[in-house]
Amino acid sequence: MLVLGLTTTNTHLINLHPGQFNSKGNRDLRIIPRNQFLALRIILKSDQNHNQVTTMTSQSTTSTPPSQIQIQKHILILGAGISALQTALTLLTSPSTKHHKVTLVAQHIPGDQSPAYTSPWAGGHWRSHATSAEGDERLRSWDARTYEAWCELLESGDGEVEGESMGERERRMGIGFRPSVNFWGRECEETVEGGRGLWWREGVVRGFEVLPLSQFPVRKGPGQEGSELVFGVGYKTICFNPSTYLLYLFNRIQSLGATVIKSPLDNKNGLKGIITAAKLLLKEKELQDLDILINCAGLSARHFLPAEEAHNLFPIRGQTILVKGDAAKAHTITNLRDVSTDEVLYIIPRPGTGTTILGGYKQAGNFDEGVDEELSRRILERARDWGVAEELRGVEGGFEVLIGFRPGRKGGPRVEVEEWVEAVRLVHCYGHAGAGYQNSVGCAEEVRGLIEGLE
Ligand SMILES: Cc1cc2nc3c(=O)[nH]c(=O)nc-3n(C[C@H](O)[C@H](O)[C@H](O)COP(=O)(O)OP(=O)(O)OC[C@H]3O[C@@H](n4cnc5c(N)ncnc54)[C@H](O)[C@@H]3O)c2cc1C
Q1: Where is the FAD dependent oxidoreductase domain (predicted)?
Q2: Are residues 302 and 441 in the same domain?
């Protein structure tokens, strides 16, 4: 045993761990308020179990379980997309992890536009793609938790602005409640038995109702009259404007103490190369070395992961059209008859911006960055023919075509701990395909659980 601190007069006890010093000798310095800790001496065991701290009082000796000891670690998050930003926010606001130091390193940050940065191109709204299948349990829980957390955020705020109205909050954060209707052109697993397959109908979303036929939109195209739709539901969804929401999260994590370094990490030498590059960068910036790296690199993770894993990653191309005007509600029509299954009709109002997104497209394996003019024409005509956003007609101004690549992964998102790499613990969080926002809070909380479980 090694006695490191002894004080009865200072206001704080300073607890140093023998195995945790960096080159500057202060890596794991923790300040313990005296009013929480009436110990006369802190004795650290310099044994293998670095988490074990024995507290000796004048009366007795008590052993604090390792789970209650908070040793600061330096967590480097690779990325600044929705996965990275929400993970950072969750770590920085959770009692079990907020004592850690968090640094984000990313080539692209909010405000940047690149095909290698998916997050700014999202639609975006909460519309779960998770199914009722057993294998989707984790996805269901992430989506459900995110819906709940977003409701809390919108209704109670984040504590940053006093007396803020819902409308002000919506504009500040770029996220808001909107009514939503979903329709199906053909029966599928989701529509069976009057929507039994929609796992989120009970206990997850608010205001769920099965819509009567009289409320179904009717297509007006030449020679194609008739509803053609087989099922429809309404519920309250949450829509967001990606650029505002990303920027909101970005500013928030910095105000909570996160450091951000805008820089690419050399990805040509595999995972080890990423870690070596991260270490070098931190050294260059005179920051402490990293203990944990969370890989939130999205689709770009394929550039440094081992080949067998890199082959699991693929782009799912999306093309949407941004138009002026606020659609009154979100609309989605899937499984349209005579339409390829990779095309969906959706209308997503973008809170606080006076614009709306029309979509969409989900083409797996396509990395074409060019605009597909024919597809744009089909998206616009479909919205017109189904009459789903009539309020947008006549709004002055042109439109903008947006193209993004969802980070698809065979087998679904990878969120797990990998063994040590170069003496750094590695946690993966990528491959979120078309659900990176709507699962963001639930997934980040799972990452937090993984971090808590690391020694
Ligand atoms: C058209 C479209 C519509 C969508 N609609 C929705 C929707 O309505 N709801 C929803 O939930 N989701 C939606 N999505 C999906 C969602 O956008 C993605 O799941 C999400 O953005 C993925 O985020 P990410 O943080 O994992 O990756 P990204 O946003 O791609 O971020 C990756 C980060 O890693 C960094 N990076 C990678 N490699 C390196 C390196 N070597 N060095 C430094 N930095 C590096 C990048 O610079 C970037 O900051 C949509 C996507 C598209 C394209």
Answers
A1: 75-447
A2: yes
Q: Could you tell me if 257 and 222 lie in one domain?
A: no
Going from the Cα of 46 to the center of ligand 1, the distance in angstroms, rounded, reads 43
Asked if residue 405 and residue 434 are part of one domain, the reply reads no
One domain for residues 91 and 192: no
What range defines the domain where residue 416 resides?
74-119+251-312+411-453
* Helix residue ranges, H only, 129-181: 137-156, 166-173
- Nearest-angstrom CA–CA distance, 75 and 186: 47
pLDDT for residue 33 is more than 60:
no
Atom of ligand 1 nearest to the CA of 319: 1
**How many domains, the chain?**
3
**319: closest CA among 302, 343, 338?**
343
CA of 126 to the centre of ligand 1 (A): 16
387 closest CA partner among 437, 427, 328: 328
Cβ–ligand 1 distance for 123 under 6 Å, the answer yes
Exposure b/e, 324-341, CB count within 10 A at least 16 = b = ebbbebbbbbbbbeeeee
More confident residue, 20 or 309: 309
pTM: 0.86
